[in-house]
Amino acid sequence: MRRIARYKLLLAACVAWACLWLPPLRSMLESDMTLHMTVQLPLLTAIGVMLAMVLRPHEPCWFADADWLGIPGVLLAIFTTSLWMLPRMLDLALGNVSIDLLKFASLPLLAGLPLGLSWPRVPALGRAFLWANLISMLATMGGLYLGAPQRLCAYYRLDQQSAAGTALVAIAIVLGLAWFIVLFIGAPSPAKPRSADKSRINERFGWGASHTFPRS
Amino acid sequence: MKRGFIPLLGLVLLIGVSALARATDGFQAVTSDGARQLSVARHPRSIPDVRLIDQNGHSFSLADYRGKTLLVDFIYTRCPTLCGVLGNDFHRVLAAMPNKQLDLLSVSFDPANDDHEALKLYGDRFGATAPRWRIAVAADRRGLDALLRTFGVVVIPDGIGGFVHDGFIYVVDQHGRFANIIEPNASAQMIEAAMRPAKP
Prior knowledge:
- The structure holds 2 protein chains of 2 kinds.
- Chain A is mostly helical.
- Chain A contains 10 helices and no strands.
- In chain A, helix 5 (71-85) packs antiparallel against helix 7.
- The two termini of chain A are 36 Å apart.
- Chain B has an 8-stranded mixed β-sheet with strand order 1-10-9-4-5-6-2-3. A two-stranded antiparallel sheet of chain B has the order 7-8.
- Chain B is built from 6 helices and 10 strands.
- By secondary structure, chain B is of the alpha+beta class.
- Chain B has helices spanning 5-23, 32-42, 82-96, 116-126, 141-151, 188-194, and strands spanning 45-46, 51-54, 59-61, 69-75, 102-108, 133-138, 156-157, 163-164, 169-172, 177-182.
- In chain B, helix 3 packs across helix 4 (116-126).
């Protein structure tokens, strides 16, 4: 990525970060459980991924070496996002501005950033495993929120909780379908010579140029 | 495997597991209610000496209850659902334990609408008579906020003019400490068990 493009991306990430923190948008997104869980938290993580795209050329060598197959980075991102999916942490963030600030710092820096830096190092099978896990986790969590007879978050009503559950299940279904289409069907494209098939499959499964399609 | 992988993985696991353990009180509570229940059972909290006004317009203080067990719930008199259940629960407690050294206190978190007439009407619905069962409002907003904070009660608007709140009963022991939480619709035996004195 060119230097100017990197600066633009960095600026966009910082502006998005600041806008999400400003009271009108923050209050609006946090006033509803669905918006909080399916818009604010993913956006904060996405800001971290943008930062990773900017910082990738400056990534310290020791981290690139130690982050074997992207495992530590992805694991850190999983721990951080899991933490902020807990109903208790959502309550704490809503009731205490310093905990909310912690959420705004940790999701970009400890979830999005390591995820963005580590993802290119994760092999295709690992990526498939992570996608499958994310989809099943979203569906399970959505089901739990939908089925819970009591409020799990003190700051949200039962109807908001059910709506969040429905949204999580819907996102899991859409992601699952999209993943299925990308992997097994692919987007319609003009007919290509047969020799291009292997590279197309490599591309579709996320194998980079350094990987080759297994010989049959 | 690259150099530095194991130490970095170990550090990430240590930080991640410690953070999750801390956020869930040792993997025991994922909700605020669960965490509050654990916290109170481990470390009973002293309650602030807040001044309140009951359904007869009489002023009293929470310190007046020292030496007795006190059951507290939080209500608003316009509530069409949960507060009726809480009122019935308190009525059952009084009927089941008429001679016990026990007082009941229903605190309204809606002082703007709950004047002493409204509190009296609510009390009359369930047979509440002061001083055994007081229906009260805090004398000032600071007192109410201190009470809600100490008991960990969160009240949010329900979107149709009322409030959403929990239906727990809070036990204050003889030493004036918030010592236990009773689930909604608990049986008289469960309530009696929850009132057993904790160690001072």
